[in-house]
Amino acid sequence: MNNLKKTILLVAFALPIFLVSAPSCFAETSTHASHESSTQPILIENAWYRAVLPGQKSTAVYFKATNVMKNSVSIDSVEIEGAHHVMMHESYDDAGISKMRHVDQVTIEPRQTTSFRPGGLHVMVVGVSDELRQLEKIKVILKLSDGSQQSFFADRRQP
Ligand SMILES: [Cu+2]
């Protein structure tokens, strides 16, 4: 009888503790979420740019972009120091002829990856300065639609 009473008492005490500790668990989860928003929304991998050959004034930057956020992320524009003009382009096939068109915005859905790659989506760099063509790494700045920006380095590679 005494034992049963003890058990009931324990349950009576344990229950409120569980109820109190459960919300703090949720609080921790939301702290994690806010942590995530302060980190870079896009994970950049394998970033490189095509080495600029003598006489050439343009090049392209390629990379793999993964949206690590829970909401979609859009790239509005790209900036590179030492280049006159930087645009997002897409190569496409028009009756056997490879052509390029402007891409105003690139939206990456949550947890999805978009590849900027030769023959597809790419960052077109026009009017390359003499300084830029010497660089082994160039700094690329992505301007996102939420007003933030994200930068990374792209390594020079021979095509
Ligand atoms: Cu292009």
Task: Write up this protein.
Helix content is 26%, strand content 48%. It has 2 domains: 1-38; 42-157, Immunoglobulin-like. The protein has helices at 2-38, 130-134, and strands spanning 42-50, 58-67, 73-80, 83-94, 97-102, 106-108, 113-116, 121-128, 137-144, 149-157. With 159 residues, it is an alpha+beta fold. It starts with a helix and ends with a strand. Strands 1, 2, 3, 4, 5, 6, 7, 8, 9 and 10 form a 10-stranded mixed β-sheet that branches. The relative contact order is 0.20. Bound molecules: copper (II) ion. Copper (II) ion binds next to strand 8. Keywords: Signal. This is Copper chaperone PCu(A)C. Pfam families: PCuAC (PF04314). It comes from Pleionea litopenaei.
CATH topology name of the largest domain: Immunoglobulin-like
Helix-residue proportion? 25-40%
User: What is the molecular shape?
Assistant: globular
- N- to C-terminal distance: 84 Å
Q: Biggest sheet, open or closed, and with what strands and sense?
A: 10 strands, mixed
- Following the backbone from N to C, one meets helices and strands in this order, namely HEEEEEEEEHEE
Continuous helix count: 2
Mean pLDDT: 84
Protein name: Copper chaperone PCu(A)C
InterPro entries: LpqE-like, Lxx211020-like, PCuAC_sf
Organism: Pleionea litopenaei
Keywords: Signal
